[in-house]
UniProtKB/TrEMBL annotation:
<feature type="domain" description="HAMP">
    <location>
        <begin position="307"/>
        <end position="359"/>
    </location>
</feature>
<feature type="transmembrane region" description="Helical">
    <location>
        <begin position="12"/>
        <end position="31"/>
    </location>
</feature>
<keyword id="KW-0812">Transmembrane</keyword>
<dbReference type="Pfam" id="PF02518">
    <property type="entry name" value="HATPase_c"/>
</dbReference>
<dbReference type="InterPro" id="IPR050640">
    <property type="entry name" value="Bact_2-comp_sensor_kinase"/>
</dbReference>
<dbReference type="InterPro" id="IPR003594">
    <property type="entry name" value="HATPase_dom"/>
</dbReference>
<dbReference type="InterPro" id="IPR036890">
    <property type="entry name" value="HATPase_C_sf"/>
</dbReference>
<protein>
    <submittedName>
        <fullName>Sensor histidine kinase</fullName>
    </submittedName>
</protein>
<keyword id="KW-0808">Transferase</keyword>
<dbReference type="GO" id="GO:0016020">
    <property type="term" value="C:membrane"/>
</dbReference>
<keyword id="KW-1133">Transmembrane helix</keyword>
<dbReference type="GO" id="GO:0000155">
    <property type="term" value="F:phosphorelay sensor kinase activity"/>
</dbReference>
<keyword id="KW-0418">Kinase</keyword>
<feature type="transmembrane region" description="Helical">
    <location>
        <begin position="284"/>
        <end position="306"/>
    </location>
</feature>
<dbReference type="InterPro" id="IPR010559">
    <property type="entry name" value="Sig_transdc_His_kin_internal"/>
</dbReference>
<dbReference type="Pfam" id="PF06580">
    <property type="entry name" value="His_kinase"/>
</dbReference>
<keyword id="KW-0597">Phosphoprotein</keyword>
Length: 598
């Protein structure tokens, strides 16, 4: 991603296209949402009108059959003159029913079956398609025997599983004058007569339309949706509006219900949210296709705009890289007439001024380095000449006293050590010696100090091999040991111990020699320790501990600010000082290396 967005042009292009994509997709989503909501509203509105119209048509059509059958029965006086005679036999009942059917039926009649139940429990059946006195549905026969003449006033419509293509109308026949029940009649009518008005809707996949009787039985229609009729009939009217979806156990549906005027029919229409969205998917896909095309066109346009905007910036970047590598050439014409052109002209002026400034600074830096080098040389010579003569005077006085009291051997040994040490401190032949020679100077110095302090001072050395290849400034470590004696162990009561160890270590990713000088003296207080630790090449020297400060400055002169003294001290317990010095090859002058590289 970082490589992809590595230039301003790419960032402008990516940001612009991203914002366009977000805006267009958001607009598309809003339009799709609005379209979906409007489609649901329109579907709800038209489905409401649809179920109301179907309920009205169904009420009118079934009412015609109810009244027509009743009128036929009463005009023929079927029950009064032919049925319900005490001496009636099945043969006569069938003959009378056949006469009634043949008189009233035509070839275009939708009536399929007639079942007649008289007051004596005798059922007479007739089937139009087979022209036999036997109905197609045993279930109707069982219903007549179970119900008898207890059918409700008016008509009851029902269907049976054994005759799925027929809808049955059952009604009780009442004597017109006596108002006494005379029996019941069931007429089977072809379902197609009623369902043809809404079968086209269902075949087109525009949802499911069902018609239930007032008893809750499904009369017309079918559905593949896993929804129970009882669940649909139990939905209160106030729960569904033109723009709402109802959540059933098996999902969300657009649902409408309307009862016929006489209350016998409940027309139910519903379509699942998934099916509804499928009908709208083409329109929604078209919306997003237009959005995608607009995104592509916008991306191409923004690519050209971004290239035009960043062309001048690319020239600036190219010349900035040249400046970084020492090139000071200005940018030539043409210059754009915009902000980038103004930046280009300002850049040319800046390059000219910067070039002059760099040359001036380089010259001043060279002069300053020469002056600093001369100052460092003078400071080094001054530090090299400083050797505290305090211990020499004490040694000479002690030698004088011992000469009177003791033999010549010990005085001779001390004289030799003192001569070597004075020769090393006053010699100007070489400023660089080996670590092995420096340790020898320390041993001579400590031998003289042991002579001065007597048995109160013990010195221990722990040395590694190879010290003859390490080259350091002469008498670099002697002031540290002197500081340990003068400020640490000289004034304390009891035995004093100086421990010196030398080993090779890696320090700042470079091979170094590590010198650790420890004593069990008085140590330092926190204030003095912090002053020494916070000392820098540019800070003023704090009072006291001049030997340690001089060593620090000599190390900075020779090796740079990365090296110095690491001081650890606790008042009353002693001091530990560690010095890390880089290992230089024989013949190399560290001071010359610092001067050339610095």
């Amino acid at each position: 991603m970082k490589k992809l967005l590595g230039t301003i042009g790419q960032k402008i292009l990516f940001t612009s296209v991203l914002l366009l994509v977000i805006a267009i997709l958001t607009t598309g989503a809003i339009l799709s949402r609005l379209y979906t909501s409007e489609s649901i509203f329109q579907a709800g509105y038209y489905s409401t009108s649809l179920v109301e119209q179907i309920a009205a048509n169904l009420n009118t059509r079934t009412k015609e059959y109810e009244d027509g059958i009743l009128s036929m029965v009463q005009d023929w006086r079927l029950f009064e003159d032919y049925f319900n005679n005490s001496d009636s036999l099945p043969y006569y009942n069938r003959r009378n029913l056949a006469s009634f059917v043949n008189t009233r039926n035509t070839t275009q009649s939708p009536i399929e079956e007639i079942y007649v139940l008289d007051r004596y429990g005798q059922i007479t059946e007739f089937c139009y398609s087979t022209q036999r006195f036997e109905g197609k549905s045993p279930a109707v026969r069982e219903k007549l025997l179970e119900t008898g003449d207890d059918f409700p006033w008016g008509c009851e419509w029902f269907v049976t599983e054994d005759s799925p293509d027929i809808v049955y109308m059952a009604r009780r026949i009442i004597h017109a004058r006596t108002l006494q029940p005379q029996g019941s009649i069931v007429v089977g009518i072809q379902k197609q007569i009623f369902s043809s008005q809404f079968s086209t809707l269902q075949e087109g996949g525009y949802g499911s339309l069902l018609v239930a009787s007032e008893q809750g039985q499904l009369i017309f229609g079918s559905t593949e949706e896993p929804v129970e009729i009882a669940e649909l009939l139990s939905v209160p009217r106030e729960q569904y509006t033109e723009s709402s979806l109802l959540k059933f156990q098996n999902g969300k549906f657009l649902f409408r219900r309307h009862n016929s005027r006489d209350g016998k029919w409940a027309v139910l229409y519903f379509i699942s949210e998934h099916a509804l969205s499928q009908k709208m998917s083409q329109t929604i896909a078209l919306i997003f296709l237009v959005c995608a095309a607009f995104i592509v066109i916008s991306g191409v346009c923004m690519s050209g705009i971004a290239h035009n905007l960043t062309q001048g910036i690319q020239r600036l970047i190219k010349h900035l890289k040249l400046v970084r590598h020492g090139g000071w050439e200005p940018i030539g014409p043409p210059y754009p007439n915009d902000e980038v052109g103004e930046i280009t002209l300002a850049y040319n002026e800046m390059v000219r001024d910067l070039h002059m400034l760099v040359e001036e600074v380089s010259e001043q830096k060279m002069l300053a380095e020469r002056a600093q080098f001369r100052a460092l040389q003078a400071e080094f010579k001054e530090l090299q000449a400083m050797l505290n003569p305090h211990f020499i005077y004490n040694a000479m006085e002690a030698m004088n006293a011992r000469a009177k009291l003791a033999g010549q051997q010990e005085i001779s040994r001390i004289c030799i050590a003192l001569a070597k040490l004075m020769r090393a401190s006053l010699s100007r032949k070489s400023n660089i010696i080996t670590m092995e020679e420096e340790i020898s100077h320390l041993q001579n110095y400590l031998e003289i100090q042991q002579f001065i302090m007597g048995d109160r001072l013990d010195a221990f050395f722990e040395l590694c091999d190879g010290l003859d290849r390490v080259r350091i400034p002469a008498l670099l470590l002697q002031p540290i040991v002197e500081n340990s004696i003068v400020h640490g162990v000289e004034g304390q009561e009891g035995d004093a111990v100086i421990f010196i160890s030398v080993s090779f270590e890696t320090y700042h990713d470079q091979e170094c020699v590590a010198v650790r000088i420890s004593d069990n003296g008085a140590g330092m207080d926190a204030e003095t320790l912090n002053q020494l630790r916070s000392l820098t090449p540019k800070s003023e020297d704090p009072p006291g501990h001049f030997g340690l400060i001089s060593v620090m400055r000599r190390i900075w002169i020779y090796y740079g600010e990365a090296y110095g003294l690491q001081i650890e001290s606790t008042q009353g317990q002693g001091t530990n000082i560690t010095v890390h010095l880089p290992v230089h090859k024989e013949g190399e002058d560290p001071f010359e290396i610092r001067r050339i590289c610095g």
